[in-house]
Write a structure and sequence with these properties.
The complex is a heterodimer of chains A (351) and B (289).
Chain A (H helix, E strand, L loop, with lengths): L5 H25 L5 H4 L2 H20 L7 H18 L7 H27 L4 H20 L2 E5 L2 E5 L13 E5 L13 H19 L2 H11 L1 H6 L4 H24 L12 H14 L4 H17 L7 H17 L1 H22 L1
Antiparallel strand pairs in A: 1-2, 1-3
Chain B lengths: L1 H28 L6 H17 L5 H24 L7 H23 L4 E2 L9 E3 L2 E3 L1 H23 L1 H11 L1 H6 L4 H26 L2 E2 L5 H14 L4 H22 L4 H15 L14
Antiparallel strand pairs in B: 1-4, 2-3
Helix pairs in contact in B: 1-5, 1-8, 1-9, 1-10, 2-3, 2-4, 2-8, 2-9, 3-8, 5-6, 5-8, 6-8, 9-10, 9-11, 10-11
The chains are: A mainly alpha (351), B mainly alpha (289).
């Protein structure tokens, strides 16, 4: 039998973790042991896991800091809602509608990613970060005054207000400017979310371990050296960026179809930062780490609910402390020494 | 038309003062200090409490607010950023975001999320020249901005501290070898930047009199954009970027669309960066292999 490579084994462990997570919560759900607030968090957890994977592709694998990923999520979310709502009477089977919404959400987010990526990826470092932030804000701002309605003639668009959509009577307004999308049918399911996580994981892991993935990592490690080896910098950077945007779009569609209303404000700078925190805390470039960090940190505010007003404060303090402990050599030493002492003690006791 | 221009310059002056703080900190610590916007908010609240609750006159209130913010800036730098000086820029960025969340939530606990109505700090009559009416807030803001600009330029170019600051931002290790106290210089930079944020907070809240724990974040992001716009790390750049940004925002609001004004501001930023990837007055750093 062929020996399994290290990277393949690591990939299978990741699939395994996702499946165990799914089975565990599915059993909890069917036996009714899960509290309401937690079972409502299952799809958002999956969404943020996918977002973290997507952002890790850009920040970790491709080495570019993006502060506007919520923008792509937003594009995916609203296009997904439009598709799902407009096809309500045409396709009655909701899983098919969900798949269609996710695919179209991903495609439109990829288009947005391409439009944004071409100018953005020419910049470097902090300038690149600020431009992605700017694009994220632009997307939010434009969606904030976008009105879309549907009637028997098809879709109507307007940038002014709901009345200027010129719809026939009986048409429905799907997206209503700052109020966002109202009356969405909730068609996302936990199983679908898990399948999407697995697909995304499959795509990213295969990309990372492929020739293209190695090229992307080479560009991250040393752009000039990679260029002198004949790699097409723009091509590979775009590949990572657009793929990441598409995945974020898919996550957005999944997320939006889990709620009855979604507002453009939800996908602002803070959401981009939230996902970035998952990626950094989970370990930059480490897919498993960012998945676990995303899952834990999405649930954490729910678990801290008893602290009410203090929970975001605690979150902030934990964030600062974790960053200092993991990045400061003195703090690391101290922690290592304390750890060693405890370990020694237990060893002595055992002996 | 001229009125819009004056309003634009006035708003731009506030952005410029905030952007100066960003750009100085960036120049010296090479970090994006996302908590800067929240220092503005703290400055606003301190001025609000001293005048509204304690009945202090305006000038001591503003001075106290500057002092509190300077101390806050130094404390933040010492506790959160100093341990990370050798860390990757991303780690520092996340820490700055943590500090920003921290300040916002502390403010939320102390002052709750109800917006406070900020008293107008500038109670002078407005200036009228023919048809043109300039509000006193706008006038004071513009004058304050000019004074700050002049003082800061003199400070960085003529005084020993200023020279030390520039030396540290050029090369930290070499500056240390020349006998410059790097830690003190960085603290000083944070203190100046945060003091400027307090002034900006008072001016901003005088012009737009609602104060909430999240008041600082959007002006913070915009001032950050302004700093990048002018070339981050450059003091005249921050000034120019801030004022241009203010003018673009007001004109965008007046002539194109109120709702889309932010989108217009950010689009202009992107276009500028595409033409000049290091901002208007930024230095181009050549890479070596």
């Amino acid at each position: 039998m062929k020996k399994i490579s290290k990277s393949a084994r690591s990939s299978f462990i990741n699939y395994g973790i996702v499946l165990i997570f799914f089975l565990f919560f599915q059993i909890m759900l069917s036996t009714g042991k899960l509290s309401n607030s937690l079972s409502g968090q299952l799809i958002p957890i999956c969404t943020y896991v996918i977002m973290a994977l997507a952002l890790n592709l850009v920040v970790g694998i491709s080495g570019e800091l993006s502060l506007g990923h919520a923008g792509f999520m937003s594009v995916g979310a609203f296009s997904g809602v439009v598709v799902a709502t407009a096809l309500k009477d045409v396709i009655t089977v909701s899983p098919i509608r969900l798949i269609l919404a996710i695919v179209i959400g991903a495609v439109l987010a990829a288009v947005a990613g391409t439009i944004i990526g071409i100018p953005v990826l020419r910049l470097q470092g902090d300038y690149l970060a600020i431009v992605t932030l700017a694009f994220g804000e632009i997307i939010k701002n434009v969606l904030n005054c976008l009105y879309i309605g549907a009637d028997s003639k098809g879709l109507h668009f307007s940038m002014k207000d709901g009345n200027s959509l010129n719809m026939e009577t009986g048409g429905t307004v799907i997206i209503n400017g700052p109020q966002g999308a109202l009356g969405i049918q909730k068609i996302s399911t936990f199983a679908a979310a898990i399948i999407l996580v697995l697909i995304v994981l499959f795509i990213i892991q295969n990309l990372v371990n492929s020739r293209a993935g190695r090229a992307i990592k080479a560009i991250r490690d040393n752009r000039i050296a990679a260029e002198s080896c004949g790699l097409n910098i723009m091509k590979y950077k775009m590949m990572a960026f657009v793929l990441s945007a598409a995945i974020a779009g898919a996550a957005g569609a999944l997320y939006a179809l889990n709620y009855s209303t979604v507002v453009p404000k939800k996908f602002d700078f803070n959401t981009s930062i939230l996902v970035l925190v998952f990626v950094v805390l989970g370990g930059i470039g480490n897919l498993r780490g960012s998945m676990i960090a995303a899952a834990i940190l999405t649930v954490l505010p729910e678990l801290l609910r008893q602290f009410q007003d203090y929970r975001m404060l605690v979150y902030a303090i934990v964030l600062i402390l974790v960053m200092i402990i993991t990045n400061n050599s003195k703090a690391k030493d101290l922690l290592g020494r304390v750890g060693a002492k405890i370990f020694k003690k237990s060893a002595v006791q055992k002996g | 038309m001229l009125n819009y221009l004056i309003n634009g310059i006035s708003l731009g002056s506030v952005y410029a003062i905030i952007a100066l703080g960003y750009t100085m900190v960036y120049g010296i610590a090479k970090m994006l200090n996302f908590a800067h916007g929240d220092v503005i908010m703290v400055g606003g609240y301190v001025a609000f409490c001293t005048t509204s609750y304690l009945g202090w006159p305006v000038i001591p209130a503003v001075l106290l607010s500057i002092f509190v913010c300077m101390v806050l800036g130094i404390v933040i730098e010492r506790l959160a950023y100093k341990p990370l000086r050798a860390a990757t820029s991303l780690a520092v960025l996340i820490t700055a975001i943590g500090v920003s969340y921290f300040l916002q939530n502390v403010a939320l606990l102390i002052w709750t999320s109800n917006p406070k109505v900020f008293p107008n700090m500038v109670t002078l009559p407005s200036l009228v020249i023919g048809d043109l009416q300039i509000s006193s807030v706008a006038l004071v803001t513009i004058i304050a901005c000019i004074i700050i600009m002049i003082v800061l330029t003199l400070f960085t170019n003529k005084t020993k501290m200023g020279k030390a600051m520039r030396a540290v931002s050029e090369d930290k290790d070499a500056a240390q070898l020349m006998g410059i106290n790097v830690n003190a210089t960085i603290s000083l930079t944070f203190a100046i930047g945060s003091g400027l944020a307090a002034i900006a907070g008072v001016l901003l809240c005088s012009a737009y009199p609602t104060l909430m724990p999240t008041t600082g974040s959007m002006p913070g992001i915009k001032a950050f954009t302004a700093a990048v716009f002018g070339g981050i790390g450059s003091i005249p750049g921050a000034m120019l970027g801030g004022i241009l940004l203010g003018i673009i925002e007001i004109f965008g609001k007046a002539y194109i669309s109120t709702q889309l004004s932010d989108a217009i501001v950010f689009s202009v930023l992107i276009i500028i960066l595409l033409v000049k990837p290091t901002g208007l007055l930024g230095k181009k750093v050549n890479e070596k292999v």
